[in-house]
Amino acid sequence: MKVVILAGGFGSRISEESHLKPKPMIEIGEKPILWHIMKGYSQYGFHEFIICLGYKQHVVKEFFADYFLHTSDVTFDLAENRMEVHNNYSEPWKVTLVDTGLNTSTGGRIKRIRDYVGEEPFFLTYGDAVADVNICKLLEFHQTHGKIVTITTVNISQMKGVLDVGEDNTILSFREKYDEDASLINGGFMVMNSKVFDYLGDGSAMFEKGPMSQLAADRQMMAYYHKGFWQCMDTQREMKYLEELWQSGKAPWKTWDR
User: Fold this and answer.
1) % residues pLDDT > 70 (the chain)
2) Half-sphere exposure of residue 198, counting CA atoms within 13 Å on the CB side?
């Protein structure tokens, strides 16, 4: 199953860093947060990624093109014009980097990767949040209910989409956050069937507005409750918090061995 990651936005709320690179490439522990997200999926056996790019996409492409240089010791023999990579370690990843446009909405970015996922179910998440979600249990839950979309929900006050969830875990409504809200929110880490593309229209709408609202109205979204760690990185304060957790050696989202 493929993992689709939205990584094309401007990251304006953390512009102190994102004016140099896309937000998913901001580093935690000397690795982009995008890498941390991918490691989380990979530990559960999901190694194929489709990354939706836009703003400063060349930074992401260069990172993967030069992955060995970022992760290995290297000897450059300038006289012989030769490079030798030592103790090289590579992830078991297949990464497709898709230019989904500079100003494209999230709905449009998802629409543009349809040919890469085909008719199979796929994971979808944002390129700026880490969590200790058990991806296999998330998928198992999705497979039990037969609805189009499963959203991982977290109970935290953030500027994210707010969910109204029924007793049987069916999502009854989806809307943007109000100032007084402190409710269940969309934490990303979603699973969806290919029928979701039928809700995207011409791709001009934000996925979190029209399409999700309609999916909820049609009772086609389910909530997977996550009570563990979840943290987005919208601000420098949140970036520093994640960095402190990583440097402490107790980062809750680091559940892989290396």
Assistant:
1) 89
2) 11
Longest Cα–Cα distance in the chain: 70
Report which of 144, 197, 137, 155 is spatially closest to residue 4, judged by C-alpha positions: 197
In SS3 terms, the chain reads as CEEEEEECCCCHHHHHHHCCCCHHHCEECCEEHHHHHHHHHHCCCCCEEEEEECCCHHHHHHHHHCHHHHHCEEEEECCCCEEEEECCCCCCCEEEEEECCCCCCHHHHHHHCHHHHCCCCEEEEECCEEECCCHHHHHHHHHHHCCCEEEEEEECCCCCCEEEECCCCEEEEEECCCCCCCCEEECCCEEECHHHHHHCCCCCCCCCCHHHHHHHHCCCEEEEECCCCEEECCCHHHHHHHHHHHHCCCCCCCCCCC
**121, 142 contact by CB (below 8 A):** yes
β-pairing, 184-186 with 230-232? unpaired
**CA–CA distance, 119 with 84 (Å, rounded to integer):** 42
The number of C-alpha atoms within 13 Å of 114 and in the hemisphere containing its C-beta is 14
Below-70 pLDDT ranges, the chain: 12-13, 15-19, 156-164, 174-183, 258
